[in-house]
Amino acid sequence: MATINAANAGTYAFDDNFKVNRLGYGTMQLTGPGTWGPYKDPEEGIKVVKKALDYGINFFDTADSYGPWFADRYLAAGLKGAANRDQIFISDKVGQTRQGPNIWTPHGEANYLRQQVEVSMMTLGLDHEDLVFLHRIDSHFSVAEQVGELKKLQTEGKIKHIGLSQVSVAQIKEAQKVAKIDAIENLYNVADHHDDDVVDYAAEQGMAFLPWFPLATGQLAQPGSALSTMAEKYQVSPAQIALAWLLKRSANILPIPGTSSVAHLADNVAAANVDLTTADFNELSQLSLK
After folding, report:
1. Which residues does 218 contact at the CB level (< 8 Å), separation at least 6?
2. Longest dimension (CA), the chain
3. Residues labelled catalytic
4. Which residues contact 168 (CB under 8 A, 6 or more apart)?
5. Quick one: which of 68, 106, 204, 242 has the fewest CB in 10 Å?
6. Which of 122, 149, 121, 123 is nearest to 134 (CA)?
7. pLDDT tens, 38-72?
8. pTM reported for the whole predicted model
């Protein structure tokens, strides 16, 4: 039986010095209902982060708006003292304000973005950010102003890589006029891959693509469905099939499934051992909801 290890998914190089295992972990679920407030069992949340390390995960995705701040605190606690801490890559996001459960309001003022990067570094215990995404483009400010501030932080050595979240190809091209964009994080999964053009453009440009909500299988995973039938064929869970599809879709895709359960974490990481045939991959590719 194959071992459960994120390394089985292959690797992705952000630069000459940093290569990560393609299957990562997202911290969004380490919060209260509506991604608001503390997680109901902080110690369990920290335990999940530590277990992720045991499973070979060295790429973690978080955001100041998760909680806000609570997910970052659990992540920092889980990574504290890790033997391979210098080999762990964290992607962060700034530019969303929170006013309550399920309420997200973009704010792209340069001073605010700078503040959030500085506070995130303090919260996570970092002297720089590996990767910072503009969580959403705020229409009240130009792309040049928002990405430009991240570029300034990069020049100052506080950010290594810059990313964009939930953007179109046109918006990426506009941002590229201001700074080098190294990663994109958009909604994308086997049930919804309307952003195929963004994935392909990112690959062409040498950008990582992080699909958020990677396990939104919903009705596709119901008993008797195509995804469920495929899972039975491979004797794995529907979630593993969904993640395996993402991993096979493009070499620049880094799935970041989140969970607050150690058992679900193991199931997600085991997806790295699923090797879909080309025929099965193509069949699953027809499932995207219109």
Report:
1. 191
2. 54
3. 66
4. 198
5. 204
6. 149
7. 999 999 999 999 999 999 999 999 999 999 999 99
8. 0.96
